[in-house]
């Protein structure tokens, strides 16, 4: 059992955001060409957290959503 738990990978919080945004694009709530700042309209009070996370990964709020969706691996530096 310990081996199973150790082999499970903990998802980075940005993966959760990426999955949610991908779902919004697939359901046509957002377009891939929309700017990241449009996510703020959907995340309300949680937006300040996600904005900081995005900026920590060198995203600008003017970047298109497709740039966020294109990230394959979320890794922290250091």
Give the CA-based shape. globular
Distance between the termini: 31 Å
Q: What is the succession of H and E elements?
A: HHHHH
Gyration radius, to the nearest Å? 14 Å
Total individual domains:
1
- Please summarize the sheet with the most strands: none
Runs in which pLDDT lies below 50 for 5 or more consecutive residues are: 1-7
Overall mean pLDDT stands at 87
SSE class: mainly alpha
What is the tally of beta strands? 0
Helix content: 40-55%
- Number of discrete helical segments: 5
Folded structure, characterized:
There is one protein chain. With 78 residues, the chain is mainly α. 51% of the residues lie in helices and 0% in strands. The chain contains 5 helices and no strands.
Please give the structural blueprint.
Layout: H1 2-7, H2 13-26, H3 39-43, H4 47-56, H5 65-69
Nutshell version of this structure?
With 78 residues, the protein is an all-alpha fold. It has five helices and no strands. This is DUF4327 family protein.
What labels describe this entry?
78 residues; mainly alpha; disordered N terminus
């Amino acid at each position: 059992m310990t081996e199973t738990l150790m082999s499970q990978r903990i998802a980075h919080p940005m993966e959760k955001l990426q999955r949610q945004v991908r779902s919004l694009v697939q359901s046509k709530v957002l377009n891939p060409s929309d700017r990241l700042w449009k996510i703020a309209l959907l995340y309300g009070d949680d937006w300040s957290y996600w904005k900081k996370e995005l900026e920590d990964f060198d995203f600008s709020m003017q970047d298109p959503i497709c740039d966020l969706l294109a990230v394959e691996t979320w890794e922290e530096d250091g």
